[in-house]
Design goal:
With 405 residues, the chain is mostly beta strands. It has a domain at 38-216. It is built from four helices and 22 strands. It has helices at residues 4-10, 240-243, 263-268, 275-279; strands at residues 49-57, 60-67, 71-74, 79-82, 85-89, 97-102, 121-125, 137-143, 147-152, 160-166, 176-177, 183-188, 198-203, 211-216, 233-238, 245-250, 257-262, 282-287, 296-304, 338-345, 360-364, 372-377. It is globular and about 75 Å long.
Length: 405
């Protein structure tokens, strides 16, 4: 992600919040849309899906889509396959073509919800990775809740497994992979940690030979710690070596934590998971109210606010600036026109509004060590009688398209 910071300026605050209105009686509801048009459609073999990752390979574009647990018939093979990863050619968005399905972890007998499958997918070119085969394209994915894998998807129609990065886990979730460095931040659940989800850092610069770097989490989550364990990790976003920051989100819909971490200190600091070593790379931590989760902590950096564009720094003393009522405050080093934010987004999990509403909450991190909430956003329930229509109503996940599209 060498152009990560620059791309934020292009995305024009494109949060594109998924306000989920999963209507139960869909056949009785009219089609509704706002600011978008349906261009193309693929049923993904009727597999329940999570967020897609888009990747350009040669002159074609492919969507790598992770799935929740379950199983469906794969017409390409004629076999019933456990939900895993769908690969779809979306070069012509009007006619997306299903290319391949990589089976995932079988759903355990009697299990429900998100058990099994292969929900998450990240893709890197070997030409970017430091020690990889430069002719290859690699897929990093979860294998249910038990493992992380790397696959060779150079030919998307013929994927082959390259390595199992780590296995024997209690859970997995939304990981991050830096293509320019090969560093992967894996949401994992080692059996000895006190929470299902924390961070395992691996060097996947050569995906065929994963190198473990360290385990990381909040103090109180590590083996041997005592007292209540802080809420488990959901995911992270790294700005890579240039930005030198990683933004972690803990909790989905309750007791969230937003954490800003110094990437260099995380990778080079002492690895033993003591309280002191876990705190060492932390730049800031914001503990959220009990009714607020941090499913996603999406950084929006170098934002220009037109409202404050005419503000100027005070020249010299208060008297010189024509200030009649001086409190002796030190003049700040910058105006308010250039700001940095995190979009902290909670996950709605219950149907028919049977929980606190999850929102988009904007956190100002211009002064990193002092993050402060500045606004929140939701769709008015009365605008669509959403609580009575069935399904979920509220935020869940932001758009994370990292391509230059």
């Amino acid at each position: 992600m060498t152009s990560f910071v620059q791309n934020f300026r292009k995305w024009c605050f494109a949060i594109a919040i998924l306000t989920l209105v999963c209507v139960a009686a869909l056949a009785q509801q009219k089609v509704e849309k706002s600011n978008m048009e349906l261009v193309g459609y693929n049923d993904l073999q009727a597999r329940s899906s999570y967020q897609p990752t888009l990747h350009k390979q040669g002159n074609r574009w492919f969507a790598y889509i992770g799935h929740h647990g379950g199983s469906q018939l794969n017409p390409l093979t004629g076999k019933e396959e456990d939900n895993g990863t769908s690969i779809v050619d979306v070069t012509d968005p009007k006619q997306p073509k299903y290319v391949a399905h990589i089976p995932g972890e079988p759903r355990a007998t009697g299990a429900t919800g998100e058990s099994g499958g292969a929900q998450m997918a990240r893709v890197c070119d070997g030409s970017q990775l430091p020690r990889a085969d430069k002719s290859k394209v690699y897929l990093l994915r979860t294998y249910g809740g038990s493992a992380h894998e790397v696959w060779d998807v150079t030919d998307p129609a013929k994927p082959s497994r390259v390595s199992v990065v780590v296995s024997g886990l209690r859970d997995t979730h939304k990981s991050w992979w830096e293509c320019d460095t090969g560093i992967a931040y894996l949401v994992s659940g080692p059996p000895d940690w006190r929470v299902r989800r924390m961070t395992q850092v691996y060097d996947l610069g050569d995906p065929s030979e994963p190198r473990f770097i360290r385990n990381f989490g909040l103090p109180g989550q590590q083996p041997g710690s005592t007292g209540p364990a802080p809420t488990e990790l959901h995911g992270m976003i790294s700005t890579g070596p240039k930005g030198n920051r990683i933004y972690f989100g803990y909790g989905t819909g309750t007791s969230g934590v937003v954490q800003i971490v110094d990437r260099d200190k995380l990778l080079k600091g002492a690895k033993e998971p003591t309280n002191a070593n876990l705190v060492y790379p932390e730049v800031a931590r914001l503990d959220l109210p009990p009714d607020m989760g941090a499913h996603t902590t999406f950084p929006l950096l170098a934002m220009q606010l037109g409202e404050f564009g005419k503000q100027k720094l005070r020249p010299g003393s208060a008297a010189a600036a024509g200030i009649d009522h001086d409190h002796g405050d030190a003049s700040p080093e910058r105006t308010q026109s250039g700001r940095a934010f995190i979009a902290a987004i909670g996950e709605t999990t219950a149907n028919e509004c049977l929980e606190n509403r999850q929102l988009v909450r904007m956190v100002d991190i211009t002064t990193e060590s002092k993050p402060v909430g500045v606004s929140s956003w939701t769709v008015p329930e009365s605008s669509g009688n959403f609580c009575n229509r069935g399904g979920r109503f509220g935020t869940h996940s932001s758009n994370e398209n990292m391509t230059p599209i």
